[in-house]
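Sequence in, structure out. Go.
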Amino acid sequence: MTTEQSATPPSSLDPADWQELRAQGHRMLDDMFDYLEHLRERPVWQPIPQSVRATFQAPAPGKPNDLAAAHQTFMQDILPYAVGNSHPGFMGWVQGGGNPVGMLADMLAAGLNANVGGRNQIPIEVEWQVMRWVRDFFGFPEAASGLFVTGTSMANLIALWVARTAAAGVEVRQQGVAGAAPHLVAYTSAGAHGCIAQAMDLAGLGRNALRVIPMTADFEMDLSLLQAAIAADRAAGLQPFFVAATAGTVDVGAIDPLAAIADLAAKENLWFHVDGAFGALAILAPQIAPRLAGIERADSIAFDFHKWGQVPYDAGFILVRDGAAHLRTFAAPVSYLRREERGLAGGSPWPCDFGPDLSRGFRALKAWFTIQVYGTEKLGEVIAGTCELAQYLKRRIEASPMLELLAPVSLNIVCFRYRCLEILTGETESDTKKIDRINADIAVAVQESGVAAPSTTLIAGRLAIRAAIVNHRTSEREIDDLIDATLSFGAAICKIA
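Output:
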């Protein structure tokens, strides 16, 4: 028995034959490269057969099974039935397409298996470097802090927690919001993502403490109504403390008037937060960045690298101007997380001091690789390119008498509908309902065809087919395919409506 053999316990999960594992690993990696290289030859999405669903209803195996067999199940029953957001024809929701470099980085991170909650390790330095890059993107000071999280929903919640602590004092961590007087109230637009209301719920403030401000005709937060709501709450003895503006609204991609909201927040002593889930990274595109004027004055910014940044899921980020306030909100010294000047317990503060997670994967590596390899200029070109494609889609819609644009095209989201002229006369309420059903059926038909994958939403009470162009692989060809499929299915469905 060799020294190596004797050092490996019988219960180890390492393979008996590393060469066999290496060969199988290369096959698995090649299969994913083949998948990415030939995406356009596949359907964007396809319905899942019941027989495939049944495959994943079997009980957990007690005995070991062959890795090659598990890989075959992946290739046959998992890979073909994913949501399809890597495909250039996916335009259903604001989801990035990932990138092959980020995929490889994720493999490296999984192999390293680092827990990046804390302690003296270089993966944390990688995360801090990305944080400094982000800080520079938005012109934040050196005292700013940041953290990788699952996505913008969590990032928005962290921002709200920090703002709550800043407004009510660090005592709120012991006493809860019930001990905070007067009651705290917050503001956001009617076009904001639902996670803002959810954050109010999870932070213990309650959804009723969120004032939803109506939008202008351009789908931006109405500043005059925001001012009026703040004044009314102060008159009622409440404490306005937080306003969440949106850079890239979920329905139409609008940008709230960030500079004007920053002025008002400063005047009213409100925490100015920007939910920039996808839109914030437009700061990398010189053609679009001026439209984000005012974002550099935010107290916090939430965004996702896995959207316009094309980093593989998941890679959300929260940036906070006042790093000390961020630290006060989450740091919780306990004996088992004791910090030292030297050794493995050095390097304080740790990422776990800036958020709720102690166990954290090495998300920063795939973002670091993506930025390091492609560079910010290239990523900015991708962002600008998707906005140019949205304008191309807008022109295609305006050139077709059977299609109708339902909202301004601000960034990369286009909302439209099939008009169905056989039904649409004066557009009575009955007409609208019927056309809504037809457009819902068109969207599903296009999805099931595998040609493209739009989604639907409601715009001013009318159902819209929504195309969110986020993927770096999307070209005019996919836009044309979407239009052609919409017109074809629309004509067929209208005939039998």
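Check: The domain at 115-361 is CATH 3.40.640.10 (Aspartate Aminotransferase; domain 2). DSSP finds 15 helices and eleven strands in the chain.
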